[in-house]
Amino acid sequence: MAILKRFEETDTIKLAVLLNEDEALRLDMGFPAGSYITPRDARRKIQKWERAERSVCFSIMEGYSFVGLFSLSHVKRKAGTARVGCWIGSSYRNRGICSEAFGLLLQEARDRGISRLSATIRKDNHYLQAIWDGAGGRSETDSEGRLHYELDIPSGS
Question: What is the pTM of this model?
Fold first, then answer.
């Protein structure tokens, strides 16, 4: 069962461990080989991102295991829009955890007055494409092969 919770100080150690140990995730995120991130560095990067991008970050958990992170960024309250960022540890992919957490993120966005989400997803990122497609997202491909998704959040439950 997926849990989505506001990213907090206690999550930084779990985040740093995942970022340092998951080679597939490191490649996905473009981390240089041999680099290392400390929990303190991880928290600083999250705080900087939240300030710079008008963002809020959420930990994706499965029980007590830190699975990944969602963010709602570039939030425009008057327009009711936000961008979604996501990464998930490679061993947790294709198990339904992120799809379940995405449903929780939709509810969180709705509760914040957001009615439309968007994301840019690389063409080789099939697990995120499947999540957006499964939620009813619409996509267009740009000249560089990236997919630009939009999703209208239905009102209600």
Answer: 0.89
